[in-house]
Design brief:
Radius of gyration: 58 Å
Helix content: 25-40%
Strand order of the largest sheet: 3-2-1-4-8
Number of helices: 12
Structural class: alpha+beta
Shape: elongated
Distance between the termini: 76 Å
Length: 538
C-alpha cells in the first residue's frame, strides 16, 4: 500500500493523518477556522504529492430509500441521475446506490439516495487541496463506511442499529436491515463527560427507535439489535442507562477489540471511534464516493505518473537482471574457452610429440600433404564404375551366348587411350585366323602412356573382352552376334563404341589362314570392344 493522506471532516474540525501500511506516521487536528485553514494549508504543502482521501462525518447528510424498475445498466443510470437531480438539485455531492432487488412482485431495484445537503462544508476544502496540488482520490461518507465496520463485527442480524461516538463529530447511529444501510443520523456534540455519555446514548437511541418505528420498519415481534462501540470503562454505565423497551436489545462492544480487528496497533484510550473509521478508510475505501469527475482529475494523473514510475523501475530491474545473467553467462563462456584452449594446447603438444617420435621419412611433409589432398579430391570428385557396369550388365542380359573374360574400367582425359589393355591368354586358339598386310606408312606419333586419372578427367573408358559361347566354328553366326552386341551398346546414351578385335578380320588387307579341325585345341570366337563415356560438365 502506498503512502496516502486521510482526512476526517466533521462540522467542527478536520483531522489529517499520513497513513502507510496501517501505520499512522503523522496526525494533526485543525479547527474549521481561518487559523485552522492556514495551518492545514502549511501541513498539506509540506507533502502535497500525497493523494488525499476525504471522509465526511456531517450532520448535513441525507438518506432516502426508493424502488425503481429493473432495467439495463444504461437506463438505470439515467433514472438515478434524474432522480438525484430532482431530490438534491442544490448539491453536486449526491449518490444513488442500488442495493438489490425486491424478492416479490415486479422485483424492482432497491435504491438508497444519499447526499451532502450543505456542499460548501466540503467544497471549500476540496478546492483548497486542488490549489495546493494535492490529488483528490474521493470524498467518502462515514455512514457508508459503517458497512465495513459491520462486517468487521461479523454482525448478521436482521435489524441492526450501529452506534459510535466521534469526538468533534457527534453520536452516529446507522440503521441496517439485512446488511443494507437504510438510515443514518448524527447527533452533534462537542464535548461530553463519561458520566453524561450513558444517558445521552440511551436518550438518542430511544429517539431513533421511535423514528424508525413510525416508518413501520418493524412488526410487533421484530427486535432491533443495538451495537454500541464503547471503551470498557463506559460499559457498566451504558448498560444501566439502557431504555426499557422490549423490542430493543443492547450489545455494548469493546471498542479496543474492534480496533484490533480493524488493524489498529495502538490501544484506544476512550470511546472515540475516529481512529477506527480512519483505519477502515486507509485499508479499503468504499467503491462509492461523492467527488465529481473533474475534482478527481488530479488523482488520475497521479495514478498515471505512478504507473510510469513503476514501469520504469520494472524495466530498470529487468535490465539489471538481464545484464547480470549475461555477465554470468559470459563469465561461464570465458571459462569454457580457457578450458578448450588448455585442451587444444595439450593436444598440440601430444601431436608434436607423436611427430617427433616418428622415424625420419624420405618424403617431405609437403609432398605427403599434397598427396592426401589429391587423393581426397579424386575420391570426392571421381564417379564410381557402379552405374556404368550396371548399364553394361543390362545389355549383356540380352546376349546370353556372350561370356565375359574381363572388363577394364578407368577415368581419363584422353578418349583414345585403351588403359594398357592386354588380351587374355589363349585368345589365338581359332580354326581360322587373319593377319594384316601392313603398308609402310609414317609411324604415328607416340602417345604418352596414360598414367592414371587426374583432376581434369572427362571420360570413362570401359573395355569388354568376351567370347561367343558355345562356339561350333560358325564364324558367320559369331560375327553376326558380335555386330548385334555392338549395335546394342551404341544405343546407350552418350556412349561411343569401338571394336578392338573380332574372331576374324575380314577387311581387304587381311590374309586368312586355316588349320585342321582335328586338333585337340578347342576353337574360340574371341572379341573385344571399347566404350567411351563422356563425363557431365560440372
Amino acid at each position: 500500500m502506498f503512502t496516502k493522506r486521510l482526512l476526517f471532516l466533521t462540522n467542527h474540525r478536520i483531522v489529517s493523518v499520513i497513513w502507510k501500511r496501517g501505520v499512522v506516521l503523522d496526525c494533526q487536528v485543525f479547527p474549521l477556522t481561518t487559523d485552522g485553514r492556514l495551518g492545514f494549508s502549511r501541513h498539506v504543502a509540506a507533502r502535497r504529492t500525497l493523494p488525499a482521501y476525504v471522509l465526511t462525518e456531517l450532520v448535513e447528510e441525507d438518506f432516502r430509500n426508493d424502488v425503481i424498475p429493473h432495467v439495463i445498466q444504461r437506463d438505470r443510470r439515467a433514472i438515478l441521475e434524474r432522480k438525484l437531480a430532482q431530490i438534491y438539485r442544490s448539491t453536486p455531492y449526491r449518490l444513488g446506490i442500488v442495493q438489490g432487488r425486491d424478492p416479490e412482485g415486479r422485483r424492482d431495484d432497491r435504491v438508497l439516495y444519499t447526499a451532502i445537503t450543505n456542499p460548501d462544508l466540503v467544497k471549500s476544502w476540496v478546492e483548497l487541496l486542488t490549489e495546493l496540488g494535492s490529488p483528490l482520490a474521493g470524498v467518502y461518507s462515514a455512514p457508508l463506511l459503517s458497512l465495513e465496520l459491520l462486517k468487521t463485527l461479523k454482525v448478521t442480524n436482521g435489524h441492526v442499529l450501529l452506534t459510535s461516538l466521534e469526538n468533534g463529530g457527534g453520536l452516529r447511529q446507522t440503521y441496517f436491515y439485512r446488511g443494507e444501510i437504510k438510515f443514518s443520523r448524527l447527533t452533534p456534540i462537542t464535548e461530553i463527560s463519561s458520566e453524561e455519555l450513558p444517558l445521552f446514548i440511551a436518550d438518542e437511541v430511544s429517539k431513533t427507535w421511535q423514528y424508525l418505528d413510525s416508518l413501520r420498519y418493524f412488526t410487533r415481534t421484530d427486535i432491533l439489535d443495538i451495537f454500541i462501540l464503547a471503551h470498557p470503562d463506559d460499559h457498566a454505565g451504558i448498560n444501566e442507562a439502557a431504555p426499557q423497551i422490549s423490542q430493543l436489545r443492547y450489545h455494548v462492544v469493546n471498542i479496543c477489540d474492534v480496533a484490533t480487528r480493524a488493524g489498529l496497533r495502538e490501544t484506544l484510550p476512550d470511546s472515540d471511534a475516529t481512529s477506527i473509521f480512519i483505519q477502515l478508510l486507509g485499508k479499503q475505501p468504499p467503491s462509492e464516493q461523492f467527488a465529481s469527475h473533474e475534482e478527481t482529475h488530479g488523482m488520475r494523473l497521479w495514478k498515471t505518473r505512478m504507473g510510469l514510475y513503476a514501469a520504469s523501475v520494472l524495466i530498470l530491474i529487468t535490465t539489471a537482471l538481464w545484464g547480470g545473467v549475461n555477465a554470468y553467462l559470459t563469465s561461464d563462456k570465458d571459462k569454457e574457452i580457457q578450458s578448450m584452449d588448455l585442451i587444444a594446447r595439450h593436444a598440440a603438444q601430444q601431436h608434436q610429440a607423436a611427430i617427433n617420435a616418428q622415424p625420419p621419412s624420405e618424403v617431405s611433409p609437403a609432398v605427403m600433404r599434397d598427396s592426401v589432398m589429391l587423393y581426397d579430391a579424386l575420391v570426392k570428385n571421381s564417379p564410381a564404375p557402379t552405374q556404368s557396369i550396371r548399364t553394361i550388365s543390362q545389355v549383356l542380359d540380352r546376349f546370353p551366348n556372350i561370356r565375359i573374360q574381363q572388363i577394364i574400367w578407368g577415368l581419363t582425359n584422353d578418349q583414345n587411350t585403351i588403359l594398357g589393355y592386354a588380351p587374355t591368354t589363349g585368345s589365338g586358339n581359332a580354326l581360322l585366323t587373319s593377319s594384316k598386310t601392313e603398308t609402310p606408312t609414317t609411324p604415328p606419333p607416340s602417345v604418352p602412356a596414360d598414367n592414371g586419372t587426374t583432376l581434369g578427367d572427362t571420360y570413362q573408358i570401359a573395355i569388354i573382352e568376351a567370347d561367343i559361347y558355345p562356339f561350333d566354328g560358325n564364324y558367320r553366326e559369331a560375327l553376326r552376334n558380335i555386330d548385334e552386341f555392338e549395335k546394342a551398346l551404341k544405343e546407350l546414351p552418350g556412349v561411343q563404341v569401338n571394336v578392338l578385335s573380332k574372331p576374324v578380320d575380314l577387311t581387304s588387307n587381311a590374309t586368312l589362314v586355316g588349320r585342321p579341325a582335328t586338333t585337340s585345341i578347342a576353337p574360340r570366337a574371341h572379341f573385344a570392344v571399347k566404350l567411351t563415356i563422356e563425363l557431365p560438365k560440372t
